[in-house]
Amino acid sequence: DYLEFMPDELHAGAVESGRLMIEHPCGLWQISPVHYRRGFARHMGVTAFPLRFGERRAFQLLGILMPVETLLRPMSSRDSPLLYETASIFEFIDFGAGTPVWPTVPTRPIVS
C-alpha cells in the first residue's frame, strides 16, 4: 500500500489521483522527493496506470518507479524505510480519453 510511505496529509490527494485515473481513465507521471531511513534522499520518477481484471474485480494501479539521478538533503523518514513527499512535478497521461481537471500543483526545480 503506497499510502504507508506518505505523510497522512498527502493521503487524500493520492487517493483522489487514483480515483481519477480509474474513472477517467488516464495514467499519471510525477517526480517526487523520497527520503530513506538510511539517511539519503533522491527524486523518484513515478509512472502509474489503472488496471482492471474482469468485470467484477476491483481496479489496481500499476506503478513504475525510476530514480532521477539527483540527491537531496534528507529529512527523517520517521519509522518507515522510506517517505514520499508531495510531487514536485505532476501530470496526468492521456491515452485516449483526455485528462481530468486537477488543481494546479506548483512545480519546484528537481535539482537542489
Compose a concise summary of this entry:
Helices cover 12% and strands 39% of the residues.
Characteristic terms for this protein:
disordered C terminus; mainly beta; 39% strand; 5-stranded antiparallel β-sheet; 1 helix; single chain; 112 residues
How many helices? The count is: 1
The H/E string reads: HEEEEE
The strand count comes to 5
Structural class: mainly beta
Distance between the termini: 29 Å
Task: Report the mean per-residue pLDDT as an integer.
Answer: 81
| Assembly classification | single chain
What portion of residues belong to β-strands? Answer: 35-45%
Name the shape in a single word. Answer: globular
Helix coverage percent = 10-25%
The biggest beta sheet is recorded as: 5 strands, antiparallel
Q: What ranges have pLDDT less than 50 throughout 5 or more consecutive residues?
A: 104-112
Rounded radius of gyration (Å): 15 Å
